[in-house]
Amino acid sequence: MSYLDGTAWHLVGASGNRVLSTLPAAPGRGISFNQDDSFLGFSPDGLYVAYFQTFDIGGSGETSPDQVRRASDGTLVYSTTGATMAVWASLPSRLFFRDTAGNMKRWDPSSGVSSMTTLGWVRPKASPDGRWIAYTFPTPNGGVNGVGFYSVQANSVSNTSPPGRSGVHFLTNDLVFYAGEKQCSTCFGGQPTPTGVTYIYSIAGASEISSRLSTVSDVWPRITAPAQ
Would you state the pLDDT for residue 142? Predict the structure, then answer.
């Protein structure tokens, strides 16, 4: 397993508990919901672990804010700065992330980093088979968000309709749960507030229905064999 203890990033394995990196202390500042993020997760194939975040900044190399390391021995295989909203997807595993301008990139263990598309996604989640990434995105009116889908294989995007949706969770490789939201001028940071209605969307059917589930915290299995 891997965990954070203050600014120290730990990896626990057969050889014991080791500190992979100690990052600079986070400076005091406000938080941007659509830009700030902290992601720590293992790749679907279990070979790598990534820590991508926007808070403990100022380091480089072994102390970079964004790193990918081998899970077997903790060695650093990739580092960068200025990245956010990372997510593992695809089998074999690839890490997708973007910068604050919405330039989305992919890190591949074999080919390195590739520029993919322009996509200002927020809180992305991958389908169990790694073929889709669901995410929230701010809509042009600035009051509510929308839900979109990125095809890992086609490098293309599609959106649900209408806006006023957020908080995606994959239930299966095709079905995605999310909640309705509405504008709220008195909420913290002007963030939308829940409507109390939730939905399930079928990517294959491009259709949405109301859900009886009030919320979703986690779903198993998280990883399945790639669809044929």
Answer: 65
